[in-house]
Amino acid sequence: MTTSSIDSAVAELRAFLTGDMDTWRRLHGTQDSDAKGAFAILLTTACSKAVENRFGKQPSAEDIIDFVSDARVRTIGPDTVPAEDAEKVLRATPGHEDLLTSMNARDRAGAQTAMLYALTHETDESQNQVDDLLAHAVEVTAAYLRQRAAR
Amino acid sequence: MGSELSGGGADRPGKSDRGDRPREGDPYGELGPDLNPVPASADHRSPGMTRREAYTAVGQGDQLLSLGLVAGTGDRGRGSGGRDDGGRATGDRDDGRGAAGDGGGSADRRSGDGEGDDGSRDDEGGDDGGGGDRGDRGARHPIRRVTSTFHDQTIVMYTDGVDWASREAVRAAGVTDRQGGQSTAPRRLGIPGLPHQRDLGDNTLGENPDVHLGDTTDQRTFADKVRGEAPFSQNLGEKDDPSESRIGRAFDSFLEDADDGYDASGSVGAAIADIVPRGPEPTGVHTLASGHSTYDAAPTLGLNVSDVVGSTVLMMVAAITGLRHLASHSRRDR
Q1: Is A79 helix (H, G, I), strand (E, B) or coil?
Q2: How far apart are CA B159 and CA B146, in angstroms?
Q3: Window 25-84 of A, Cβ < 8 Å to B
C-alpha cells in the first residue's frame, strides 16, 4: 500500500466531510483496492478521534444515545443507519475495538461513515476540526501500514 | 527495572544445595548487613529470611514463570529448591536503556524454606549493583520487558514490578482472545526429559496440586494486561508480532473486508449527500438539516446588472413624468 493510496482515500473522505458532494461522488468510484483499505483505516481512526474529541475517553451511554437520536433527526436522516450500529461505533473507544470487530464490514463502515459525518456537522466548530481529524488519521494509518509492511 | 533477576555473580560457586541456609564464607556475605535475618514484618519476608534469600527465591520464581513451568502462580513468585543452572539475565527497559547483569557462572541458589511474595519481590537488582531502587519495592510501574538466558535459551518476560508474565503467556492470551476466550494453554505438557525441572515444578506447585507444569492459564490476567497496554509493538518489543496488539488485529480484519466496507460507506454517503442539499421540510416528520444554521445572504456592497437597469428605468420614468408635468404647467400659464 502506497502513500498515494492514503492520499486518494483522504481526498475522498475530506470531500465527503466538507460537503463537497460532487467531488466525493467523482472520487468514490475510482479507488483501487489499496485505497479502499486505506479508507477503512482512515475512517476508523478519524471516527475514533472525533468521538474522543466530542465525548472524552469514556463516553457515557446516555450521551451516545442522545447524540445518535439527535443526529438521525438533524443530520444523517432517520433511516440511513440503524441506531444500534451507530451507538456501537461510538462506544468503540481504544481498548474496546472488539465492538468493531464483532460487526460485519458493511454495518461497521456504514455506521462509521454516518457518525463521522454527524460528529463533524454537529456545529460550525465541529466542522472546523475536519482537517485536524484527517491529519491524525493519516498519521495513524501510515504508522500501521508501515508496521504491517515490515512483518 | 533492574538488570539481574537470577542473582549470583560469576564468582559464586555453582552448587545445588536445595533447602540449605547460607554457609560460612558464602559469597552472599559480601552483602554485609543484608545477611542479617529480618523479621517477617519487614518487606514481607519470611521470619529469619535474609534479603539475599528473598531475592533468590523471587528470582527463581520469576524464572520459572518465564519458562512456563510454574502454573497457578501468575501473581506470585514462589521460592523453590536450589538449582544449578548458570543462568544469566539482562533487563531491558521499554525506553531502550538496557542494563545487563551477568551471573555467568553458576549460582548457588538456595532458598530453602524461603518464599517471596508480592510484597517482597524486588527485581531491581540492587544487591548485585544493578542500580535498583529499593524505595519503590512492590510499586507498580509501566510494563517493562525483561530478557534472560537460561540454559542457552532466551527468555522474555514482562513485569509491572509486581506481576510477571512470560512472552509465551502473553501470546497464549492473544490466541485465547482471538478464539473467543477459550483457553488454548495446555493443561499438561509432561516433560519427562527434564526431571530436575519437574522437581522444581513439583515444589513450586506444592500449594496448587490441580495445576500442572506448562499450564499458563493462571497467568492470563496479567498477560492480558500486557497485551491490552501495548499499543502496536511498543511494549512487546521489536521482535514481537505487531498483530499482537488489539487495534492492529482489528485493522488487519478491516483490510480483509475493505471492499465491503467501502461499498457500504458509499451507500451511506450517497444517502447523506441526497439529504444535504435539501432544505427544511415544510411539514411532516423530521426536519433534516445539514447542521449549519440557515440565513439570508447579506446585501452586497457593489452594484450588479439588475440594480443598474432598474435604477435607470426608474430615473427615466421620473424624468419623463417631470417633463410632462412641466409641460402641462407651461401650457396653463399661456
Answers
A1: coil
A2: 8
A3: 25, 28-29, 31, 33, 36-37, 39-41, 43-44, 72-81
Report helix, strand or coil for B104: coil
**Cα–Cα dist A27/A7, whole Å:** 12
What is the number of alpha carbons within 13 Å of residue B280 lying toward its C-beta? 9
State the DSSP H helix or E strand holding residue B157, giving kind and residue range, or none if neither: strand B153-159
Tell me the mean pLDDT per 10 residues along chain B, length 334: 38 40 40 37 44 41 40 38 40 40 38 39 39 54 77 78 75 60 44 44 43 50 55 37 65 88 93 71 43 45 65 87 86 74
CA triplet B124, B127, B129: central angle to 5 degrees?
Answer: 80
pTM (two decimals): 0.43
B109 vs B332: CA distance, rounded Å? 137
Written as one letter, the residue type at B125 is G
**Distance (Å, whole) CA B211 – CA B189:** 11
* Domains in chain B: boundaries: 27-244
Beta bridge partners of B101: B89
Candidates B260, B265, B290, B293: best to mutate against A (most CBs of A within 10 A) is B265
- What residues of A are in contact with residue B247 (Cβ under 8 Å)? 94, 97
Q: Give me the helices (H) in B183-304, please.
A: 195-204, 220-228, 246-256, 258-275
Residue A77 with chain B: CB contacts under 8 Å: 271-272, 275, 286, 288
Q: pLDDT digit string (tens) for B236-253?
A: 333 444 444 677 888 888
ipTM comes to 0.93
Tell me the per-residue pLDDT of B166-220, one tens digit each, with 9 for 90 and over: 777 777 666 555 555 544 444 344 444 444 444 444 334 344 445 555 555 544 4
Range of the domain at A60: 3-150
Dig out the grid coordinates for B122 from the structure.
524486588
- Contact call for A127 and B292, based on CB within 8 A: yes
